[in-house]
From TrEMBL:
This is Putative NBD/HSP70 family sugar kinase. SUPFAM superfamilies: Actin-like ATPase domain (SSF53067), Winged helix' DNA-binding domain (SSF46785). Belongs to the ROK (NagC/XylR) family. One of its GO terms (molecular function) is kinase activity. PANTHER family: BIFUNCTIONAL UDP-N-ACETYLGLUCOSAMINE 2-EPIMERASE_N-ACETYLMANNOSAMINE KINASE, ROK (REPRESSOR, ORF, KINASE) FAMILY. Pfam families: ROK. The lineage of its organism: Bacteria, Bacillati, Actinomycetota, Actinomycetes, Micrococcales. It comes from Microbacterium proteolyticum. The keyword Phosphoprotein does not apply.
Length: 386
């Protein structure tokens, strides 16, 4: 969908992308519903759907609607055989998923790591996993690219990982390494930015246009901003590093790191330590916090929530979002008492900025970063009408 041509060709590619994006993001639609949603006429929609079918991007299935008079209209759905491979390297594991154009996660694996991944090792593990999947769950699939959600700043122009400090990566050409390993187009982005896009399109912030998203992972805290429905990248694509802000800590006894940044004080590692765990995913952390009666563990949760509330209030005061979404271990912290955290945030927020503000935990849970990474692939490879 990105071949050169005349102005008319460009308009047609844009319309093809519009129809495909609509059924991907809004769900299956009849041709009549696509006509209404896109503003295109019925004959144009019929022509575009036919071309998308021939390209192997959509299929039509019989309508399940019963009791209607006349012949039921077929439903246009994304072809689930179209796949994006999604990757999230972290300090303790490598998550790899195969996400279909219809949103189904066709395969998923978590490769626990006992030493830090290198960019090269990451690409090798993805290559090996993909080779295995091609013989199994993806045997009949069409894989259109690889998306990688990295815990650190990524240069927007070429996907260079400028720094992933907890992985000890610096100026890593991950996009090229991934393409060389898999022979597929690769799209690399900051994990929080991709998580924000996923929650904006499919999760807790769906329908909102102004969003702040904070993601808590093993590598710390990342963040992203969507303003007017568009991700805010900044001059180089590095906007949203909330975890590197200096937190406002009123009570000196709450501070754990002299001169530390937010991710030093609000920390997954500190929470795991408080419940006596050496490691584990967010589900394990949540279960341990729910079952512990240790007052020191509860005190650590309360301390982190106080600091987090101030950080969120600062974001609300500066950016005036409609929704603040928390993912990863921050969602675990928030879910302990979402109403209480909301009250603490509002107490420190300018009243005008608090009007209409909603605090939410990520609806996509552990899938959010993989869904976001896949979306980067679909947007670049299928929806960009160039």
């Amino acid at each position: 969908m990105s071949t050169a041509g005349s102005r008319g060709d460009g308009m047609r590619r844009a319309n093809l992308a519009l129809v495909l994006r609509t059924v991907h993001r809004e769900g299956p639609r009849s041709r009549a519903a696509l006509t209404e949603a896109t503003g295109l006429n019925r004959s144009t929609i019929a022509d575009l759907v036919g071309e998308l079918q021939r390209a192997g991007l959509v299929i039509e299935r019989a309508s399940e609607a019963l009791g209607r008079v006349g012949r039921p209209s077929p439903i246009v759905v994304p072809d689930p055989r179209v796949i994006a491979v999604a990757v999230n390297p972290e300090v303790d594991a490598l998550d790899i998923g195969a996400v279909a154009l219809d949103g189904t996660i066709m395969a998923r694996t978590r490769l626990e790591q006992t030493s830090l991944l290198t960019p090269e090792r990451t690409a090798q593990l993805v290559e090996a996993t993909l080779a295995e999947w091609r013989r199994g769950p993806l045997i009949d699939s069409r894989i259109v690219g690889v998306g990688v959600a990295v815990p650190g700043p990524v240069r927007a122009s070429d996907g260079l990982v400028r720094e992933a400090p907890h992985l000890q990566w610096r100026d890593a050409p991950l996009s090229g390494l991934m393409t060389d390993a898999t022979a597929l187009p690769a799209h690399v982005g900051n994990d929080a930015t991709l998580g924000a896009v996923a929650e904006h399109l499919f999760g807790a912030a769906r329908g909102a246009h102004d969003i702040v998203y904070l993601n808590g992972g093993a590598s710390g805290i990342g963040g992203a901003v969507i303003a007017g429905g568009i991700p805010l990248g900044g001059a180089g694509g590095y906007a949203g590093e909330f975890g590197q802000n200096r937190p406002g800590i009123v009570d000196a006894s709450d501070r754990r790191a002299s001169g530390g940044v937010l991710e030093d004080e609000v920390s997954r590692a500190l929470l795991l330590s408080a419940v006596g765990l050496d490691g584990g995913d967010d589900a394990a952390l949540a279960a341990a916090l729910a079952s512990t009666a240790d007052p020191e563990a509860h005190a650590e949760v309360d301390r982190q929530r106080r600091i987090l509330a101030t950080a969120l209030a600062n974001a609300a005061n500066v950016l005036n979002p409609a929704v603040i979404v928390l993912g990863g271990f921050l969602a675990v912290l928030a879910a302990r008492d979402l109403d209480g955290l909301d009250t603490a945030v509002r107490a420190q927020t300018v009243p005008a900025c608090a009007d209409g503000l909603r605090l939410a935990v990520a609806e996509l849970g552990e899938d959010r970063l993989l869904v976001g990474a896949a979306e980067a692939v679909f947007e670049a490879q299928l929806f960009a009408a160039r």
